[in-house]
Amino acid sequence: MKSLGVLLTCPMDSYLEEELSRRHSLFRLWQPPPEKRSEFLRENAGDIRAVVGNTSVGAHAEMIDALPALEIVASFSVGLDKVDLGKCREKGIRVTNTPDVLTDDVADLAIALSIATLRRICGADRYLRSGSWKNNGDFRLCSKVWNGFVSFSGKAVGIVGLGRIGSAIAERAEAFGCTVSYHSRTKRPQTNYKHYSNIIDLAANSEVLILSCSLTHQTRHIINRHVIDALGPEGVLINVGRGALVDEPEFVSALIENRLGGAGLDVFEHEPDVPEELVGLDNVVLLPHVGTDTWETSKAMSDLVLGNLKAHVQKKPLLTPVV
Ligand code: NAP
């Protein structure tokens, strides 16, 4: 007999979906058309004891209220900004996430975005593919860009959120000869990196500002006009945290008005919508939220979700409990 009714909120990793369906009774929220989803939840509410969500569709208050038998939300993500944690606490619903196993891949991507933005790797690739190298000559000579090509090695790197991912980014940046500083609420005594309690001071002293903090009510729009102006026209913003850390209209205006040098983004405020203006800019690198999308990390995240559900069913301690 299958042990648990599990609601999967949207398509994720195929291995995870197969294993969930093999081990449990699986309900796929995206299968009914959007207008029938409330009815689908109502019909199956008595059987759904677990929700597996991700950074696209988590477990919001309305969903939680619609599922009276819900016992656990096992998120296929480390960030829990799409889960109503307060509501889960109030109702005694357990919550787990997938920390650590994704740290290296996200930190790798932050460095990749920094180098791709500064060295204009994507633009150069497009230049070659379009035949322009052959027809128009060297990319460098035809470049109309802000300040040309810029080295990553040796830059002053500022990290917003020196947690698991931020620390892994810092280690990598150090290997490139960068000086590392950071902003977070807590000073980390075990590091030699300079701590700025004020994010504007960090931005003013950084050439590359990398966002890797969690999205909360406090950090929403932590990157506002003042921070962008402090980073300045030679500065580059890299975001592997969450889109809503940045006040997107302010940020887009700064890029258009050359008040900011460039940006490399894996995340956006209203995914999958990306401001049209960004798509037309040469000094930005845009990725469709792929920070953890490697075979190895997806498998490890899936195993953590499955392990947490198994522990819950067996009434054992959860592997990565948050609530
Ligand atoms: P973590 O270890 O919990 O680190 C979070 C960091 O955010 C901590 O250093 C924390 O420092 C800082 N922070 C929290 N509130 C803050 C505030 N008000 N002001 C300044 N800093 C604050 O989490 P992690 O595993 O490194 O993951 C970080 C985030 O990366 C996740 O929450 C997620 O949103 C994002 N992420 C993105 C991808 C992707 O695909 N692009 C993948 C995985 C994760 P203090 O508590 O000291 O302030």
From TrEMBL:
<dbReference type="Pfam" id="PF02826">
    <property type="entry name" value="2-Hacid_dh_C"/>
</dbReference>
<dbReference type="Pfam" id="PF00389">
    <property type="entry name" value="2-Hacid_dh"/>
</dbReference>
<dbReference type="InterPro" id="IPR029752">
    <property type="entry name" value="D-isomer_DH_CS1"/>
</dbReference>
<dbReference type="InterPro" id="IPR006139">
    <property type="entry name" value="D-isomer_2_OHA_DH_cat_dom"/>
</dbReference>
<dbReference type="GO" id="GO:0016618">
    <property type="term" value="F:hydroxypyruvate reductase [NAD(P)H] activity"/>
</dbReference>
<feature type="domain" description="D-isomer specific 2-hydroxyacid dehydrogenase NAD-binding">
    <location>
        <begin position="111"/>
        <end position="291"/>
    </location>
</feature>
<dbReference type="InterPro" id="IPR050223">
    <property type="entry name" value="D-isomer_2-hydroxyacid_DH"/>
</dbReference>
<dbReference type="GO" id="GO:0005829">
    <property type="term" value="C:cytosol"/>
</dbReference>
<keyword id="KW-0520">NAD</keyword>
<dbReference type="InterPro" id="IPR036291">
    <property type="entry name" value="NAD(P)-bd_dom_sf"/>
</dbReference>
<keyword id="KW-0560">Oxidoreductase</keyword>
<feature type="domain" description="D-isomer specific 2-hydroxyacid dehydrogenase catalytic">
    <location>
        <begin position="11"/>
        <end position="322"/>
    </location>
</feature>
<keyword id="KW-0521">NADP</keyword>
<dbReference type="GO" id="GO:0030267">
    <property type="term" value="F:glyoxylate reductase (NADPH) activity"/>
</dbReference>
<comment type="similarity">
    <text>Belongs to the D-isomer specific 2-hydroxyacid dehydrogenase family.</text>
</comment>
<protein>
    <submittedName>
        <fullName>Hydroxyphenylpyruvate reductase</fullName>
    </submittedName>
</protein>
<dbReference type="InterPro" id="IPR006140">
    <property type="entry name" value="D-isomer_DH_NAD-bd"/>
</dbReference>
<dbReference type="GO" id="GO:0051287">
    <property type="term" value="F:NAD binding"/>
</dbReference>
